[in-house]
Amino acid sequence: MESCEEIVVERADIFAQADPRLLNRFFKYHRDNPKVYERFVHFAKLLRSRGRKKYSAWAIINFIRWDHDISTEAEDFKICNDYIALYPRLLISEDASFIGFFHLKQMKSEGRKLSGEYPISPDVIVVLDKEKI
């Protein structure tokens, strides 16, 4: 059996309202574009260190988009707007000190409850770790 990379998500309850199909697309994008999340975390920590008590995930993502456009001559850089609500949730799942820093709006879902494993691709699977909640 081939090895499979796992993305373990602690505090899976924070993703409970998300549509599983959206989560699959997001975590595939996250796996393929880790720099976006690294920059998101960097800017969130920077803003908090400068005294911000709350901040907008939209503003951070749009700054990342703008900075990429200004600082590189690379091809178009895309971040799906649907993923913006998931970046602060991922950060909070990894660092609970960010609870309350972002306003988390209720996500639209189709009434599906999340638990267990969600295959993203043949080589990646997301494990929503209920034991860490």
Protein model, in words:
This protein is of the alpha+beta class and about 130 residues long. It has one domain (about 5-130). Helix content is about 40%, strand content about 10%. It has helices at about 20-30, 35-50, 55-70, 85-95, and strands at about 5-10, 115-120, 125-130. Strand 2 (about 115-120) and strand 3 form a beta hairpin. Helix 2 (about 35-50) crosses helix 3. The longest helix is centred in the first third of the chain and has 16 residues, at about 35-50. The radius of gyration is 15 Å and the shape is globular. It starts with a strand and ends in a 5-residue tail after the last strand.
List the helices and strands and how they pair.
Layout: E1 5-9, H1 20-32, H2 34-49, H3 57-71, H4 86-94, E2 116-121, E3 124-128
Parallel strand pairs: 1-3
Antiparallel strand pairs: 2-3
Helix pairs in contact: 2-3
How would you briefly describe this protein structure?
This protein has helices spanning 20-32, 34-49, 57-71, 86-94; strands at 5-9, 116-121, 124-128.
Q: What tags apply to this protein structure?
A:
4 helices, 3-stranded mixed beta sheet, single chain, 3 strands, 133 residues, alpha+beta, disordered C terminus
